[in-house]
Structure formats: C-alpha cells, structure tokens
Amino acid sequence: MSSPDPTTLSSRPLSAQDAFTIHYFASASQYTGRHTEHLRAPLALSQLFPTLEAIYPGIQTVLKSCAVSLAGEYVDLDEEPGRLIGVGDEVAIIPPVSSG
Fold it and tell me: 14 near 21, Cβ under 8 Å?
C-alpha cells in the first residue's frame, strides 16, 4: 500500500522545527506501512485520529482498539480533547497485545 505524504496536508514543507514524531506498532504499522513518521505540530489530541484517517483512509478500524501515548504516558483522547501535541513530542499508537 502506498502511503500519502503527510506533508501534503499543509502547503508548507515539513521540518523538525514544526513536527512531532508518531510511532506505529503491530497492526497500525502494518496498515500505514511505516514504523515512524513526522506530522505537523501543534495538533489537538482530539484531531489525531481524524488526521490519521485523512492520511490513511480506513485506518479508523485499526485505531478504534488502539491505546495512545504522548510523551511516554497513556492518554485518553476523549478526556483530554484540548491537549496539544507539540513540536518535538512523541506519540505512539499501540494496538492491543494478546497473550497466548
């Protein structure tokens, strides 16, 4: 699957001075075809999943069961909608882990 360039969501080129890093694990990585990428900051936490859906149509089916961490701490997207993901922040998309 070819991944759209996240820099196309804005007219300005993306640089480290205006980006955050997002890490994808397991099924999220498989869906995006990436382990890591940079997205434009700041971004409201409430806009993270809609932004990813715009870049990767259909990813919402994967994201609805995923946990999200911001700066190494799990966050609840519904409880902190106004929180901003800032320049230099690290976000992780973590699908459920099964044991067997």
Answer: no
Give the span between the Cα atoms of 64 and 62, in whole angstroms. 6
- Alpha-carbon distance 70 to 80, whole Å? 11
Rounded-to-integer distance, Cα 93 and Cα 53, Å: 13
Amino acid, single-letter form, for residue 46: S
Task: Find the length of the chain.
Answer: 100
* Tokens standing for residue 27: 């099924």
How many angstroms separate the CA atoms of 76 and 83, rounded?
10
Pairing type for strands 90-94 and 19-24 reads parallel
Tell me whether the omega of the peptide bond preceding residue 42 falls within 30 degrees of 0, making it cis: yes
User: What is the three-class DSSP state of 10?
Assistant: coil
User: Cβ atoms within 10 A of the Cβ of 69, count?
Assistant: 14
What is the average per-residue pLDDT within 55-70? Answer: 97
The reply to whether the predicted model has a pTM over 0.85 is: no
